[in-house]
Amino acid sequence: MLKIGVLGAGHLGKIHLRLLNQSEKYNLVGFYDPIESNAIKVAEEFGYHRFTSIEALIAAVDVVDIVTPTLNHYECAVQAITAGKHIFIEKPIATTIEQAQNIIALAKQHQVKGQVGHVERFNPAFKAVREKINNPMFIETHRLAEFNPRGTDVPVVLDLMIHDIDAILSVVDSEVKSIHASGTAVISDSPDICNARIEFENGCVANVTSSRISMKNMRKARFFQKDAYISVDYLDKICEVVKMKDAPEVPGDFDLILQNAEGVKKQIYYDNPTVEPNNAILDELETFADAINNNTQPVVTLEQGTKALEIAYRIIESYSK
């Protein structure tokens, strides 16, 4: 089993600690949190071993799980990688693109693996339809959240929208051609609401909306492609696939048939896959263990995490003009 330690014991860090403690692929060695009062409380309440320095934790493990505030990602990653440790790093990969690129370079230099915590890739609803999303030409996403002070140290693009950016980039095999965005700060110093139109070289368009001051929570995506419409509800973990095929010469009584202006008839039918329940965070952590043990590529690479960050900053640059 791989020995792993967690840097950061905040809200998400405690979730990682609990899941890693249950995992059959990791041996949770302990954690480090610079806020001593919080670290003592977590150690006493849950029984996890508390390290008193980052250096001590890194020296004791094979894998470092970085669940610190984004501003600390780079420093923690550099320390872990230069010590020859594999890193799992929460999204976004770093504060700046230059930092992310340095993390990639260091990981290659020290021959360690890294994975970025874009957890929606492991959402069971998205996993259920991932292979059915084939060359989408229009994508629409809405990620709305009730206000929570946690996370407002960064724009909503880096806090929420980056989840959808990564998911979109994982299904669109094309470079981004142009971005047009608008953002508004309502309660924070940085924008709390953002809408972006991302145009790809192959003609695909993604309309992406995120808000962290909504009256209700919503995490939905819709993918439109030739002869198919696919919807994913990340929050409720349900999906829907509506497809079209040539209509039979003699339709059944309950067949839904559409006819266009040219007289072409299509039959509408549902092809909904089974959504297999899972814990997405545990899945992403354990697939990283598999990548290390089998020397394969992680599901969400450092390069992919950096690409999502690059697009996020292009969106921020667009609405900041």
Automatic annotation (TrEMBL):
InterPro entries: Gfo/Idh/MocA-like_OxRdtase_N (IPR000683), Gfo/Idh/MocA_Oxidoreductases (IPR051450), GFO_IDH_MocA-like_dom (IPR055170), NAD(P)-bd_dom_sf (IPR036291). This is Gfo/Idh/MocA family oxidoreductase. It comes from the Bacteria. Residues 153-216 form the GFO/IDH/MocA-like oxidoreductase domain. Residues 2-118 form the Gfo/Idh/MocA-like oxidoreductase N-terminal domain. It comes from Flavobacterium agricola. Coiled coil: none annotated. Pfam families: GFO_IDH_MocA, GFO_IDH_MocA_C3.
